[in-house]
Design goal:
This protein is α/β, with parallel strands linked by helices and about 400 residues long. Helix content is about 40%, strand content about 20%. It has helices at about 20-35, 60-65, 85-95, 120-135, 190-200, 215-230, 245-255, 260-280, 300-305, 320-330, 335, 360-365, 370-380, 395-400, 405, and strands spanning about 5-10, 40-45, 50-55, 70-80, 105-110, 140, 150-155, 160, 165, 180-185, 205-210, 235-245, 285, 310-315, 385. Strand 2 and strand 3 (about 50-55) form a beta hairpin.
């Protein structure tokens, strides 16, 4: 069946009182973003409802994209008819026949905002229900717990009918809770943390620290591909690629081995905080899970956090690894995350990292380093790209590095 539009339902934004219209406008914009390459589509808000008018676009394609829009609780493909009782009955039956598996029970619900329609809501409900029963087998009416509901809405401009309800991802509209910067490593955890943060309404930008050419071009490509998956939920995603090799050389030169990861992550946060200020982001997001590795003990996080004032959000802090992997599979990031390419962290892990680093010891090590200069140099050489679901971004096209300079 060729549908005319998709009825969109939203949840938590209805609870926001006076801010409801701001949240609705944000949701409208997010829907338009994920459908931007389908110019025939029109997204409208009428009578407190959001409709995606298809104008010939594939409803299957649109539905798959709407499943990724945060803030949508559910949606229904809608067929529009004229203000004619016979058309309404035929279309209602056709829609019911599209439900898979075919239901055993049903009911009809009618709303009639257009009061000049000749039949009342109960009268039209009876007419449509009787027509469906006459033209089907093994189907009965159940007004209390039906398998399927045929919904009919009578308006002046036409009649809107739907019978399927498809669940959405829920949450809050992207960007409605502000902006944050997520530290993306290329592993399993940080993309999942990104997804949870976006689900709570955060607009995210990503920052990735690489050590190309010591690590491969493929390790950067992995992060780009992960961001492309995440952009399916927002329509676009900005990524900052920070060269970190020179800083790692300095850490290796001056730090005791057990503190390498601690000093490295303190530098990560310093640089990320600078980018957050530039991009007007009010928080950092990480994929840390308490106790998962040496740098994620409470003592380690305390010492690492000590160098920044910006809030750090950790959506996965209490989650088990298996639970995180399950979510990664569900959101589509797992396959890219497990590609066997080393990042700057995996190449730098000491044999016996400290699990209880001291702030004073970390500061003593950093006094030997030109911290401000190293940070400024890395920021100056950062590459920033915007990625959408339709882009085919290649790492080799965005990383321009003088190999000899890095290998000094």
């Amino acid at each position: 069946m060729n549908y005319d539009s998709i009825l969109v339902r939203y949840g938590e934004i209805a609870l926001k009182g006076k801010n409801r219209y701001r949240f609705e406008d944000r949701l409208l914009q997010n829907i338009r973003n994920v459908l931007r390459d389908l110019p025939q589509i029109k997204v409208t808000k009428t009578f407190g409802r959001i409709y995606v008018e298809l104008h010939g676009a594939s409803h299957d394609v649109v539905i798959e994209r709407l499943k990724n829009v945060f803030g949508l609780v559910s949606f229904s493909p809608v067929k529009r008819t004229d203000l004619d009782v016979e058309d309404i009955k035929r279309t209602s039956l056709e829609l019911l026949q599209q439900v898979k598996p075919f239901p055993k029970t049903f009911k009809v619900e009618t709303k009639r905002p257009y009061k000049l329609f000749p039949l009342s809501s109960p009268e039209l409900t009876y007419e449509v229900g009787a027509y469906i029963l006459r033209n089907t087998e093994n189907l009965t009416v159940n007004v209390h717990q039906p398998d399927t509901v045929v919904n009919i809405e009578i308006r002046e401009e036409g009649v809107f009918i739907y019978s399927q309800t498809i669940p959405g991802v829920g949450g809050m509209p992207g960007g409605s809770s502000g902006k944050a910067l997520v530290l993306l490593s290329g592993g399993i955890d940080s993309p999942v943390a990104s997804w949870y943060a976006m689900k709570r309404g955060l607009q995210l930008e990503g920052i990735h620290f690489h050590t190309y050419p010591v690590t491969s071009e493929e390790s950067i490509q992995k992060v780009i591909d992960l961001v492309k998956v995440l952009s399916n939920y927002t329509g676009q995603f900005r990524l900052h690629l920070v060269p970190f090799l020179e800083i790692q050389k300095e850490i290796k030169k001056y730090s005791q081995e057990s503190y390498n990861i601690t000093i490295m992550r303190r530098m990560f946060l310093r640089i990320a905080e600078q980018f957050a200020k530039r991009q007007h982001a009010l928080a950092l997001v990480t994929g840390e899970s308490l106790g998962q590795v040496a740098s994620q003990t409470l003592e380690s996080m305390y010492t690492i956090n000590h160098v920044v004032r910006i809030p750090i959000l950790r959506p996965l802090i209490t989650m088990d690894k298996l639970d995180i992997i399950e979510v990664a599979r569900k959101i589509g990031t797992y396959e890219a995350s497990v590609r066997p390419f080393e990042d700057c962290c995996s190449l730098f892990v000491p044999k016996n990292p400290t699990t209880k680093p001291l702030v004073t010891r970390a500061e003593f090590i950093e006094q030997k380093m030109e911290v401000d200069k190293l940070i400024n140099d890395a920021i100056q050489r950062t590459r920033t790209i915007m990625i959408t679901p339709q882009d085919d971004v290649k790492a080799k096209d965005v990383i321009f590095t003088d190999m000899q300079e890095f290998m000094k």
